[in-house]
Amino acid sequence: MKINSSMDSYFLGLDIGSSSVKAALVEVNTGECKASISKPEKEMQIIANHQLWAEQDPELWWSICCDCIKELKKQHRLGADQIIGVGISYQMHGLVALDDNGDLLRPAIIWCDGRAVAYGDKAFEQLGETYCASHLFNAPGNFTASKLKWVKENEPLVFENIDKIMLPGDYIAYRFTEVINTTISGLSEGVFWDFEGHKVADSLLENLGIPNEYLPELVDTFCQQSKVSAKGAQESTLLEGTPILYRAGDQPNNALSLNVLDSGDIAATAGTSGVVYAVTDQKKTKELKRINNFAHVNHSAEQTSIGKLLCINGCGILYKWLKENLDLYSYEQMNELAAKVPQGSDGLLVFPFGNGPERMFESRPLNFELRGMQFNRHDKATICRAALEGIAFSFYYGIKILLEDGIPDGIIRAGNDNLFQAEIFGQTLADLTQLEIQIYDTTGAIGAARACQITTFDQSQFSQSIEKNDFVRSFLPNVSCQGLKTVYSNWECIITHQLHNVTT
């Protein structure tokens, strides 16, 4: 599509998380980030009235989005006509339900809510592994479809009054525009999409007793999805008619933010938890329990693009725990201490688990462990080094699962934050994988704003914006690293033994 722009025109990117909303403005033609903001200062409330429950009020997301827009405009003295397109990223797998008046029927059941697992497991058993592998590319698990089944069984009056269900990003787009729609990528993250038939997963809906009419109309990920209505303009202060140009879940969007769009490209995030997200053009999977498979942002009937997502719970949360409990004052201090210890951490091994069941171990319980500690040899510095190496080992373990599931070798791209700011972590991962790791200074909100370039211009301009504005550095693998691989082999042998003991 063509769009009128000038050097003082901007795309707005919104990233709706469960803890905060982030917003960014990027210049239309260059893709350069001109401003960003995060609200609220304290994390948004998650409602947990019962064990395993996690809910949020979607009105809160919308209110904070509007606050972010107003503050960005005020701080940078922008007129409403200077924001000419909106891209939206959002927390995945949530369930928002509206009645036929467009009103909320209940709080959103968000991604980390665990109440629906039994319903997903039952659907998997009834549909069969062959169907789930070839059509859904996932076990129904605890995704949006299973959460809707929970509502059907436990809140029948709510279920009967549903007109449309949607994902969190769909709801924000609806509040801007009063139009309800979603994307193929969005439906796939809820396990509502049949990859083999390139259509809604009717067999799953029938199994769960969910009417097809509950699902919104489909639009492309990159297109003029809808326009800001008079009501949306009044509440958000955007100009009426401003187009919504892009929408995607946070992990596909984070990958896009790093220019991970082609088969073999890999995105990595190492925050509180860790994520490896790899793209393939092959419509097949052997893994239904250890990884998730979603339609990537550029997937279509003509172009297969599947995002394979592997999550590692025990990641930055371990480094944070060590900082607090070893009485260290900063991550920079920890990295400096770790750098004084030779590779291999003098025989000390860290197993960075203890933040809940790890999906890559089929949700079998493993705990944090320090193995090989010698009080006369090891100190805080050794522990810091072993922690960075142990987390890198867990990433490599996960990447090997992805490679075994058909991902070709490619470049790993990661954001310039959290553990990737630690030289030891980045270099250890590069040496183990023998892959280049490129570091970029970007965020999900910036990526969502830049994605509007794909809709209005083309992918090449979007990619050039990332390379020009964001590239920081590369970790290049050392060819000779046999000592490190020996340490890793010992680490993996211990994991294998632990898993065997857990299952028997």
According to CATH, what is the class of the largest domain? Alpha Beta
Structural class: alpha+beta
What name does the CATH topology of the largest domain carry? Nucleotidyltransferase, domain 5
Molecular shape = globular
Number of helices: 17
- In what range is the share of β-strand residues? 15-25%
Please describe what this structure looks like.
With 504 residues, the protein is of the alpha+beta class. It folds into 3 domains: 1-92 and 220-258, 2-Layer Sandwich (Nucleotidyltransferase, domain 5); 95-166 and 184-218, Nucleotidyltransferase, domain 5 (2-Layer Sandwich); 311-441 and 472-503, ATPase, nucleotide binding domain (Nucleotidyltransferase, domain 5), CATH 3.30.420.40. It has 17 helices and 23 strands. The chain has helices at 58-75, 117-127, 129-136, 144-154, 156-160, 168-177, 184-189, 202-208, 230-236, 250-257, 316-325, 331-339, 380-404, 423-433, 444-456, 459-469, 482-503, and strands at 10-16, 21-27, 33-39, 55-56, 83-90, 96-98, 108-109, 164-166, 181-182, 193-194, 199-200, 217-218, 222-227, 243-249, 266-270, 274-280, 292-295, 306-312, 349-351, 369-371, 412-415, 437-440, 471-475. A 7-stranded mixed sheet has the order 17-18-16-15-21-22-23, sandwiched between helices. The protein has a 6-stranded mixed sheet with strand order 3-2-1-5-14-13, with helices on both faces. Strands 4-7 form a two-stranded antiparallel ribbon. A hairpin with a 5-residue loop joins strand 2 (21-27) and strand 3 (33-39). Helix 1 crosses helix 6, helix 11 (316-325) runs antiparallel to helix 13 (380-404) and helix 12 (331-339) packs across helix 13 (380-404). The longest helix is centred in the C-terminal third of the chain and has 25 residues, at 380-404. The chain is globular, with a radius of gyration of 23 Å. The N and C termini lie far apart (59 Å).
